[in-house]
Amino acid sequence: MKLEELYQKLNQAVVEGDDVTATTLAKEALGLGIEPLEIVRLSIQPAMDLVGEQFQNGEAFLPELIIAGDAATAALNVILENMAAGGTSAIKGTVVLGVMYGDNHDIGKNLVKAMLAANGFRVIDAGVNVHPKAFIENAVKEHADIIAMSTLITTSIPYQREVIELLKAMGKRQDFFVIMGGGPIT
Asked: Cys staple from 138: which of 1, 96, 171, 179, with CB 3.0 to 4.6 Å?
């Protein structure tokens, strides 16, 4: 199979929510020696962008968004497992990554996790619905350089601010870079 055809088939598998095919194609791409980040950038991310755009335009609905996200996550898990098995000789830094308290949307987090790992960062995945104190506790425990928070829900934005305020109150604000992202973040 040609490289472009492989990328297109993986893209289509994600769009269609076919997690079995997405997993198989991700393994095939890795087996060909394709860089993990390239697989994410050229197949998985464009597929999720397309489904997200279709959702915003009313051409796709929540079930399609969820199953596409599940297929993307399945492919990303294969990519991350492969990267973990290969080891990383030069870690660029440690990132505690999670979805903010009150939010369970993890598709974007999983994509960011894959991209960070592919670029040499050690990523501690705190999960979803993470309380502000838990971000800080994980960052301190793991000797993190970066705290990365995501949210797709506007009601979770104040909890991101709370992380900053807690860091200031603890005298630890200068110990960490803090990154906030997600749909409602400007």
From this structure: 96
